[in-house]
Amino acid sequence: MTFENLNLIEPILKALKTEGYTTPTPIQAKSIPLILEKKDLLGCAQTGTGKTAAFSIPILQLLHEKQGDDRGQRKIKALILTPTRELALQIGDSMAAYGKHTGLKHTVIFGGVPQKKQTDALRAGVDILIATPGRLLDLMAQKYVHLQHIELFVLDEADRMLDMGFVNDVKKVLKVLPEKKQSLFFSATMAPEIMKLSDSILVNPAKVEVTPVSSTANTIQQSVYYVKGPDKRKLLLHLLKDEEMESVLVFTRTKRGADRVAKDIAKAGVTAEAIHGNKAQNARVRALDNFKSRKTRVLVATDIAARGIDVDDLSHVVNYELPNEPETYVHRIGRTGRAGASGIALSFCGADEVPYLASIQKLISKNVPVIDNHPFPLTAKDFAEAASTVKEQKKKGGRGGRGSWGNKPSGDGKRSSGSATSNRPAGGPRNGGGNRTNGNRNRTHQSS
């Protein structure tokens, strides 16, 4: 199937051709026709499946077809509500790319920056508004935003909205929207509280589900390195000597950790920047632009700051620290290997993080191959000490981390070439090859 098969108008097809996109992803192929039929939509799709284009393209088409009905100043007819600044900006970029020949205007509003440019754009009139909840409510209170003419409403990344505590803000926005409108609801997970929220928004929705959150793309080559925490920095710098690590997104658990890792990488002569919530908005946008344009080779990010990062041909994702929620691992590595492209995900696992790895492998229903022919392997003593610590924590009533030391991963990877000493836990996985998979990256559309 191609985009031509989806009954899209020529201005949008022309823009897609300019961008080099010819083949829709599954969620685009399923969603676009339903939205063009003006149906409410409940979409379950994780990051990297192409959902931004799945709603942006039909919104542009529906509004373009009604442009002749307008007189006077433009009124906001489509509202896209999203949890983070980065994702809002990325959606704005997508709207600009696909809508360049439609004559429609959009703007993006978010907090953390002065509001004047945003309010100037609103005064001039826009058709499509992309917003984060806090700044939207603020500008509504100041009478810069009027939503009584909304015809299309999108709630994007609803699960993250709830995680970040925005549910009450979302409900405040919903109260002022017209009752008669087309609503689109997207979430990576469908927990009961998510379904309850969707029921309050959607009317007889069509349902689309692709790539559940528990799965990882087959195009992503995953590997794990057992390594002590203090040695992770040295291992990362060792790996970055490989020139095939062209564009690398590194995940840390904390903002301070992101700054420290980026500083260490830069000291070693590799261009690197950090992106997280404590950075000024202008600094975050600049760091992301530098990464997209390949001025910066390594971007170090926290999980929330990484939402909405959409980079073509991202070669590697590195989990510098494993997340304590296995679903977060799926979201992280989904930044590479997007929409059919190949990618590599490398994870650093300290002895105390083995329970996290066990939980991840249980969620994704596969074992992550271990690479143990590297300069900083863990020893059997390291694992024994960590296991003893977990045991003591449990005796004192602590959780001791997710997972269990009784469920150590057993893998199916092939041993890497060359001699290697395996220091994995008893019954642990054999090491797998970590070389990049060669081959062409088929460019289907890959907005998140």
Automatic annotation (TrEMBL):
Where do the Helicase C-terminal domain residues begin and end?
231-384
PROSITE patterns noted in UniProt? DEAD_ATP_HELICASE, HELICASE_ATP_BIND_1, HELICASE_CTER, Q_MOTIF
Q: Which Pfam families match?
A: DEAD, Helicase_C
Domain named Helicase ATP-binding is located at 32-208
Q: Which CDD domains match?
A: DEADc, SF2_C_DEAD
The reply to whether Nucleotide-binding figures as a keyword in the UniProt entry is: yes
Identify the residue span(s) of motif Q motif. Answer: 1-29
Q: Which GO terms describe its molecular function?
A: helicase activity
Q: Where is this region: Disordered?
A: 389-448
Matching SMART domains: DEXDc, HELICc
Q: Which UniProt keywords are listed?
A: ATP-binding, Helicase, Hydrolase, Nucleotide-binding
The residue ranges of the DEAD-box RNA helicase Q domain are 1-29
- Which family does the record assign? Belongs to the DEAD box helicase family.
List the protein's name: DEAD/DEAH box helicase
